[in-house]
Specification:
This protein has about 350 residues and is an alpha/beta fold. It contains seven helices and 19 strands.
Length: about 350
């Protein structure tokens, strides 16, 4: 069938993204009686189920993954043998998501990349590389994986070695015999530093000292962290990183790294040179690889024409779980701000669906 780029298919609600947040929203839409097809569609730019999980590195297994939460209505253990902790996350989670989509007959259309969303006559025009859609309401669940954040330090283009970001990591073996500078103070940086330091020499660099916490990461601390991020987005500020709020909680693996001196943190360098990096005091280190574990930014470029960003560089959010765009209540962002976690995305999916249905009077 030939696709006509001038023909837009009408739906009530379009969900963009089929990761944890998007599937949660799709489940709640079906549960609320919104029919697949004319009622709602889910657009996903991947070739298969699994969201960002299918792109994670092979050494990330069920034994060291940083939290997996059940999607609503179907447990992870119903699809995967969770007792087998050697299972790769990039295989187990896609299997779970695929079964979930089939179990609840969710209308996921893929691979479809949304290039731009515009507003015309009270409807959203959703421009894609395939079928075009027009919708009354929008639930954006595109996450962050597709937009890595790599700060371009002076000398970036001079470096003769290799630079890569977390999203490009395959395994530690490719770095054997090379000195690797690992940049970043989040949990991914620390986990991958632990892996790479077992096969080669490393230097760990962060912008600020890492706050290692030995007390249990209690429910109360989690709530405080979420509340802090929620306060920011309700004020229209850009979301802060989770680590900046919670710190890094010490696991047995991290305890071992601390004892072995692997977590010998150095402050951020000032400049990248041809052969390594240089600090403000003139100290230099030669390196073969600079590995940026500097996080991701929210994938929202396709919404630029809607002018949601304010002069603070953020989006002012409202609604029960801060998923509703204050400027345009027809739009909900899930996986943004306080819902940027697997458990947060689940709750946000339900809240966003309820509020959007009420607003659109469906």
């Amino acid at each position: 069938m030939q696709i006509r780029p001038d023909l837009f298919y009408k739906v009530d609600i379009a969900v963009i993204g089929a990761g944890q947040a998007g599937l949660s929203a799709a489940y709640h839409l079906r549960k609320s009686g919104i029919e697949p097809g004319k009622g709602f569609v889910v657009l996903d730019d991947e070739f298969g189920s699994g969201g960002a999980w299918q792109h994670r590195w092979d050494s990330l297994t069920l034994s060291n993954v940083n939290g997996i939460n059940d999607l609503p209505g179907m447990a992870f253990a119903d699809a995967v043998d969770t007792m087998d902790t050697s299972l790769q996350a990039n295989l187990a989670l896609p299997k779970y998501y695929e079964q979930y989509e089939k179990q609840f007959d969710l209308p996921v259309i893929r691979p479809v990349r949304v290039s731009e969303v515009t507003d015309r006559n009270g409807r959203f025009m959703i421009h894609t590389n395939g079928v075009q859609f027009t919708a009354r309401g929008l639930i954006n669940a595109t996450g962050t994986w597709k937009t890595p954040n790599c700060p371009k330090y002076p000398g970036w283009d001079k470096f003769l070695g290799r630079q890569l970001h977390t999203g490009e990591y395959k395994g530690a073996q490719e770095f054997i015999g090379k000195h690797v500078i690992i940049v970043g103070g989040g949990i991914s940086a620390i986990q991958l530093l632990g892996e790479i330091s077992k096969v080669t020499t490393t230097t760990w660099v962060t912008r600020r000292p890492v706050d290692f916490k030995k007390e249990e990461f209690s429910i109360e601390l989690r709530r405080e962290a979420v509340a802090s991020v929620e306060k920011r987005v309700r004020e229209g500020l850009p979301p802060s990183s989770v680590v900046s709020v919670t710190g890094i909680h010490v696991t047995p693996a991290i305890e071992e790294m601390l004892l072995n001196g692997v977590l010998d943190r150095k402050p951020m360098f000032e400049e990248i040179t041809e052969n390594g990096v240089r600090w403000e005091d003139g100290t230099t280190i030669d390196a073969d690889v600079i590995f940026w574990n500097t996080g991701f930014r929210h994938s929202l470029d396709h919404l630029a024409a809607l002018h949601l960003l304010n002069d603070k560089g953020g989006i002012e959010m409202s609604g029960r779980l801060a998923t509703q765009v204050s400027k345009d209540p027809r739009i909900h962002l899930i996986g943004y701000g306080p819902s940027a976690s697997t458990i947060g995305a689940n709750r946000a999916g339900g809240a966003a669906v309820k509020e959007l249905i009420e607003f659109l009077k469906l």
